[in-house]
Request: fold
Amino acid sequence: RAQEVVFSGIQPTGVPHLGNYFGALSQWVEMQNAPGTNRQLLYSVVGLHALTMPQDPKKLYEDRMNTLASILAVGVDPQKAILFFQEDVPQHAELAWILNCYSMMGRLKRMTTWKSKLAVKEGSQSSDIIDDSGLNLGLFTYPVLQAADVLLYRTTHVPVGEDQRQHLELARELAQKMNRVMKNDFFPLPTTIINPAKRILALKGSPPQKMSKSAPDPRSRILITDSAAEIHDKLRVSHTDSIDPESLPEDHIPSLDELSPNVANLYTILSCCTGEDVSTLIPRYYRRRYGYLKADVAAAVDAKIAPIRKEYERLRKPDGEMWLREVAEMGRERASAIATQNLAQIKKHLGI
Ligand code: ADP
Ligand code: NA
Reply:
């Protein structure tokens, strides 16, 4: 089998934003285009994960297609990578069930994503007494399904954004545990490939959160299909800080860490778009009004995503939809072939 197996997933929550693009999708394309290794790539749109949030069926269907089109538009080649819908390969759910039986409640309760969903019970003094009665079980076991996605293909490398670090730690623990239970080194321990320099923050909000598809204000994120006008508008109203740049000392050029998070984020985005180091960029804009930086970030983002937007629009025409279905079917077949074989071995090792 391949020396390296790469798996990565994205939720079908609509068109990806710059955080998804720089944190994950651009890595997907880089890994695909890196020369010469014996590497199996699997990229998945994870619809089962999306069901942990309330969804409208018609919109979810559209979002799934939009997400697949976005992945193709950024440059993933369905000949080089196995590109598929997680929900088309039932072995993901079957392995998730198996892994659930080896996952401890206490461990899952400590996941920060779960904790962030919990409300402190009204009137309670202690944050230990929390109210989980209105949360669905899928949300609780979400990281186990994610571990199943990864382990099903005996994945060695997982390119994801910074926010997924803890989930991948759980996948490694489960791989070790299952290997002990099965008395077999079946699962390699998956390595996480994270570029922390590419964590993108929302354009609005304090304290600044990561850019996300679920934040209520749509102007807090730039989608990879936004028009030039939308990009400029969103950046124009983006948050910076209340410092007057023209009043800053001339003799000290700050590093990225010394800037306020919202301003640093603008430099990060610019650097991601142009490939220039932030240490080159900061002296160029430092002590100038933020409007200059914002205008150049907008232009750089537009230059970066204009070809993606164009390809996306082509794929979302009626002819494109046929191609999307073909891609999904091809991916389903190839992913299923591996998944079926691996799951059969796992079950044999478990005695079921
Ligand atoms: P979201 O968090 O917006 O719902 P997903 O959970 O589908 O998006 O994440 C898809 C990928 O994008 C994951 O690898 C995740 O780590 C990455 N990602 C999401 N948001 C950001 C961000 N703001 N900066 C960097 N990477 C991100
Ligand atoms: Na996420």
Notes: The chain has two domains: 4-193+318-350, 218-312. Strands lie at 4-10, 39-45, 82-85, 119-120, 130-131, 157-159, 191-193.
